Structures are given as structure tokens and as C-alpha cells.
Structure prediction request, 162 residues.
Amino acid sequence: MKLEIRRYRWSDLDTLLALHRICLAEVGLVPGDGVYYDDDFPRIQEIYLACGGDFLVGEVGSRIVAMGGLKPVDTATAEVCRLRVHPEFQRRGFGAAMLAAIERRAVELGFQCVRGDTTLNQEAALALYQRRGWRELSRERVGELTVIYGEKRLVPRAVMER
Prediction:
């Protein structure tokens, strides 16, 4: 099974929202927990694409099984958002492939740093970020959850090409 990564299309919206909800339910996150929200999905074009970020979709065949967004924070920093892999397709390297693609895209867009967050109960996500060189910045209690904030300094494209 090969994961093909491409840019978001408007026709992906309903599938991505369903994927988001499936993935969060899998790790025990629910609406109203202080961490779960999905109001950005109908506005992917505005929040991610139109302001200098991006939103990527991973497909196996014609089935969307992964996603991840890149939302500018300022001219140097972008936030990695909505990194998700369908539970049926986890443990195949698709999360790592999506995160690597998002990080490459951030470099292409001129960002020097990426930031993101996950919860303590999302052990696979924590391990992925650690393997990819992210460092923990802080932790915060939100209701019953512990949110972990992290970042990674990016290697500029010119340095990568040497």
C-alpha cells in the first residue's frame, strides 16, 4: 500500500471531517472537552491555504486515509494542525510520511519553525514528534487532558540542497 500525498480539494471536506472525528474518538477525545474542535474544517481554504499555509491529504487508492494542515502563525512560524491517520491505516508509516511532507512544505513556504500540540494520551503522536526531532515546549491541563506543546526548527532549503 502506497500513500499518495496531494493538496486539499473542496470536495474532500466531508471525508476529512469524518476522518477527524473518527481519529479523535479513537483516543478518547470528545466535543466539549476543551481540546476538541472542528470549526476550521469548513474554512480550510481561508484558514490554511489563502493565508500562506497549506493542507495536505493522504490517499491509498482513491480512499483518503490521512491529512495534515499547516497554518501560519507569523512569517517565520507555522502550526501543524489536523495531523490524522485513519485507525485502520495506522502503524504503516503514514503519519511519519504526512508529517515529513508538511515539514517539507513549511520549508518551501519559507517558515523557519513549526509548532503543534497533542495530548498526553496520544502516545503514537508523541513518539512520532519525538522521532522527527520536535522538542517539548510546555504542558497544560485542559479539563481532564494534558496538552503538550512542541516545536521543531526547520533546515532551510538552501542548506538541505548542499
